[in-house]
Known about the structure:
With 475 residues, the protein is an all-alpha fold. 70% of the residues lie in helices and 0% in strands. It has a single domain, classed as Amino acid/polyamine transporter I, CATH 1.20.1740.
Amino acid sequence: MDNKSQLNRTLGLRQVIVVVIGNIIGSGVYKKVAPMAAELHSPGWVLICWVLGGIITLFGALSNAEVAGLLADTGGEYAYYKKIYNRFFAFFFGWSLFTVIQTAAISSLAYVFAQSLHSILPLPQLLSSLADFSIGGVFSPFADLSVKLTAILLIVVLTWVNMSGIKSGAGLSTAILLLVFTGIGVIVFFGLGNAKAEIGRNFELATTSATPVTFSAVFAAMLSAFWAYQGWAAIGYVGGEIENAHRNIPRGITIGVLTVVAVYLLVNMTYLSLLPVAALEQVHQAGNQIAAVEAIRSFWGYGGAVFISVLILVTTLGCTNATILASCRTYFAMAREGLFFPKAAALNQAQAPANSLLYQCIWACLLVLSGTFDQLTDMIIFAVFIFYGATTLGVFILRWKMPDAHRPYKVWGYPIVPAVMVLFCVALFFNTIFVRPREAAMGMVLMLTGIPMYWWFIRKQNQKPEVAPEEKILS
C-alpha cells in the first residue's frame, strides 16, 4: 500500500502526555467543586471525592494501558474491541463516539468557551424573539444563539487547524497546556499564600449542616469529578501516529492521569481555602457562576475575575482542540474497513483525515444548536463508562486468549484493580438509569441507531467490494 495512505508516526512520549492531559483538563477543574460542595457540605469530603474519583480513573487508565500496550493502533478501543470481542461491538463503540461521547464533549467544551468569552466581551443578542422556541420541549436551537454561533465558529476554526496535520494540532495543544499550567500555578501560589486562605478547612470532615454525608451523596459528587477527569482514553485514538506506541501509550496515560490528579487536588484545595462551603453552595444554586471565578474574585477583585475568565477561555480552547484532534481518528479507522462513510477514509496532502474531521465538525455543530448541554454531559458519562468497563474486562479476556503475548505493560494490582473498575462501571450504569432516566434513555437511543447503521454499512461494503477506501487520497 502507498505510504501516502498511511498516518505518520510522529508523536513521542512528551506529546502523548500532552494529548492525554489536554483531553482531560477542561471546564471541570473550574466548575465542579461547587456541585460537589452542594452534595457533601464538607470541604474534607469534597477532596476525598476528588481522590476517589482519581483512584477509579487511574484504575481504568492502568487497565486501559495494558490493553493499549498490547494492541496499540489507530482508533483506540475500536481497534481493541475487534480483537477482544467482535467487529459489531467495535463498530457500536465507534458509532457511540460519533453520536454521543466525543462530539458531545466537543460541543460542550466549545459552549463553555463561548460562555466565558461572553462574560468578558458581551455578545449581541440574535433572534431573541425565537429564544423560547423549542422542538418537542427538549431542543431550543435559538436560545443564546450568539453564544452558540461563537461555539460553532470555534469548532470550525479548530477543525481547519487540525486539517493541517497532527503535528500542527499537537503543537497548538502543547502551547495552550503550558499557558494553562502557568495560570493554575499562579492561582495555587497566590491563592494558598493569601492571608484570606484558611487551609485548615480542607481537612474538616465535620459539618454544621444537618444533612449527613451518605453513600448516595458521595456517589453523586464523584459523578461531577468524573466529568472533570473524562478524556484520558482519547490517546488511543491516535495510536497509529505514535512512535513506539506499545511503550509510549501506557507510559503517557499513567503519567498524564497522575499529573492531573495532583493538579486537581492542589487547585481544589485552593478554592476550598478561599471560599467556605456555604459560599460554594450559593455559587451552585446561582447556576450562572463559576466557582474558580468567585474564589479568585475574593482576593483579587474584578481583575482576578477577568484573569480566571481568560484562563478558562484558554483551557477550554485547548481541551476542545485536543478532543477534535484525537476523536476523528476512530472514524478514519472505521471508514478504512467500510464501517463508516467511505470518504472519511481519505487523507489530504498533510496526511490528515480531513473528511473525518469534517463529519465530526458538522455533527458537533448540530449538537451545539440542540441546547441540551447538561443532558449531553450526563449522557457522555453514562455512555463512556459502558466502554470503560468493556475495555477493563478485556484485560481478563486477553490474558485468557493471549496468555503468552508480549505485554510492554501489565496492570498493577491484577486482578483486583481491573475487577474493582468493572464493578464500579456496572454500578454507575444502573445508578444513572435510576437517577437520570431521561438522559440514560436519550444516550441509549442515539447509541442504538448504530444497529441499523452497521447493517447498512455492511450492505454497502458488499455491493462495492472492489473499492478500497483507504487508498483514496484527497487532492
